[in-house]
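Q: What does the assembly look like in three dimensions?
Context provided by user:
Components: two
Sequences:
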Amino acid sequence: MNRVRPAEPVHALEIPTAAVALLVPSACIAEVVPMTDLAPLPCAPDWALGVTPWRTRAVAVISFERLLGGSRRAAAGRSKLVVFYPPPGCRPWQFFALLSSGDPQPHLLDTVEAVPAGELAGNSCIAAAVHLGTRALAIPDLEALGQLLYP
Amino acid sequence: MPESSQYLRIQLAGADYLLPGNGYAIEQRANLVAAQPGDFPVVAWRVLPSGRCPAYSLGREFKPQPPGDWTVAVFLETGPRPIGLTSAEVQLLTPAGIHVEPFTPPGQPPTHAGHLFNAAWVEDARPLLVFEPAALVAYLQTLGASP
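A: Here is the predicted structure of the complete assembly.
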């Protein structure tokens, strides 16, 4: 296992999903908002759950477990929507939201331990896996995610 | 994303959408010819001198569905034969008070003309997606009625 020490401590958000917990730099996230009823998004892939209003925009809501090939699960009472800034290479309005299965948790990271990605290895949406305490978290590849969402 | 001088609010399967521009005709259900069961997915026909034009009813996922509780059909202009979709209710809106923002649906476009929507308006914390008319026409044409 490789210990990775960033030049500066990094603020990150742990986002629980039904499939895997994600670790994302806080700078990528615009806001965490309560789950609302989603408007339909016809003719979209099955990993796109619908559309939510966010400020003056409509934002597509994505299921990460569906992106990983899992089954669709209903949003739980503690579900939140994590609104991401447009991924690298995307247009300025291409925000998206990820459905979390619980409250995202903030972390200030100065050292993380890279671990094998296990069954997530080879998935283009996952850049790496790390240990945080005793838990393994996946770091999404936001550039690959952007290419999938907005090809 | 071009601004439009007017929008038509269309209710489809319980959700509202906006159709920009004025390239359409609205027909009351009573003025259309009901389709025969074998005509499905067409639910009604508009009869013109140039031929008959199909109208479709769409469900929440925009799959064709049998005729339900609709009152009007909106026929989009596309060459000699417009193509229609049914709606429980339509409402003409002027752009005053409508703040449309660009919106890109995720994933691959479902039609050769691109995504069905290219903008959205958030009204009272409710998002209304704005159709890209050419893509909507292309999508309806894939449903495939014979005139």
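Follow-up: Chain B touches chain A at residues 13, 15, 58, 60-62, 99, 101-108, 110, 116, 120, 122, 125-129, 139 (CB under 8 Å).
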